[in-house]
């Protein structure tokens, strides 16, 4: 019997929904320390269509060498309630875990849960190595101890993890003939896209939502991201945009005065002393960028508890204060929508990292080098140019490594992709199409998901047709 020959790109789908990166020079292209990722809500995880079994797979630490290194337990979540089984070649929907706790992604990827019954599919969410509970060397402290222990935190190793785990699982279930569809959003979307390219024999298609696979080297203009974020605020309110734009000079001026940093710390209710104005800049830039990413038309807690259309609410707070209120108080009132919408925070820790997201710092200092800059003429953010020399120096100081800015495009490609888009404002928010359907979904989103379902159905139908032809040969 001859195995079917599949074109590596024939079943490949990339959907880039919005926003390609993040505020700081290298730390937050995706949810990072200022996002304070939430644990999944219990009521969501206990819903009938969100039930899963938690399992652990004994994973190889280094897939690309034959050194006798310790293995580590990789967590994955599995649901077979709707799977029609191996005899009917029931499909497998595999979510490629991002830089965080896998339960959080399971709770925020309702599209996959809603799709599984329709296709009789198994659902699997695999946790990314070095995040959540999937820690090599026994603990996070040991895994993040030094350059040697962090050396295996790479996208290539993560993709190999997913390939090995799903292959082993299919073998144990006698489901070798079951087709695999990959899903992912943001960094997870990048992994889904790259896995489809690197392991075309393992998955027949990939849906990559909000996946910034072109945010490397100079493939897109370096100021694209901050221009997109700025336009989100400008469309909502030009006065809000202008207030934010002016605030950076005010913060710099106040910070240089005697006791100015103390004044800023008090104004923004920081828990500790402010070491520099730059630290406050980063905190504010994070809020504005993440607000643009999660500007959903309904309340959400994807990064933080937020109201519907949070940018609108932020700008209301900035614009609607009484005349005479100073610019810093307006800014604080606005960003409090992001950092303290529930009103539960008494003060704010600028370096708070409760969910162990510092792994992304390592990835950004090694291979995930996503250069960005800000142009004050088109952006509401402070002006700065990307400088690889200072970027590399920072990475050397923190980790003792030098970034490889061209490695991702060498490994996965990215140049000369014939797609007219590089960066654009779209109607949706960060991997909004992967979230659960709601009564508040706009028509365009309903149509978008229907289009995705049609494409996925086409992949599966074509696979079954090919397999039937092969069997009858």
Q: How would you describe what is shown here?
A:
The chain has 473 residues and is of the alpha/beta class. It folds into two domains: 12-17 and 52-218 and 427-471, Rossmann fold (3-Layer(aba) Sandwich), CATH 3.40.50; 222-357 and 370-391, Four Helix Bundle (Hemerythrin (Met), subunit A) (Up-down Bundle), CATH 1.20.120. The protein has 17 helices and seven strands. Strands 1-7-6-4-5-3-2 form a seven-stranded mixed beta sheet, sandwiched between helices. Helix 9 (238-256) packs antiparallel against helix 10 and helix 9 (238-256) crosses helix 12 (310-319). The termini are close together. Residues 1-47 and 420-425 have low confidence and may be disordered.
Quick take:
By secondary structure, the protein is of the alpha/beta class. The protein has helices spanning 42-45, 102-107, 110-119, 140-143, 147-150, 155-172, 187-198, 224-236, 238-256, 260-267, 277-293, 310-319, 327-339, 359-364, 388-399, 407-412, 443-471, and strands at residues 12-15, 53-59, 72-79, 92-96, 122-126, 180-185, 205-209.
Helix content: 40-55%
**Tally of individual domains:** 2
Topology-level CATH name of the largest domain: Rossmann fold
* CATH architecture level-2 label of the largest domain: 3-Layer(aba) Sandwich
Per DSSP, the total helix count is: 17
Strands side by side in the biggest sheet = 1-7-6-4-5-3-2
Family: Belongs to the peptidase S28 family.
Organism: Mikania micrantha (bitter vine)
Signal peptide: 1-25
Keywords: Glycoprotein, Hydrolase, Protease, Signal
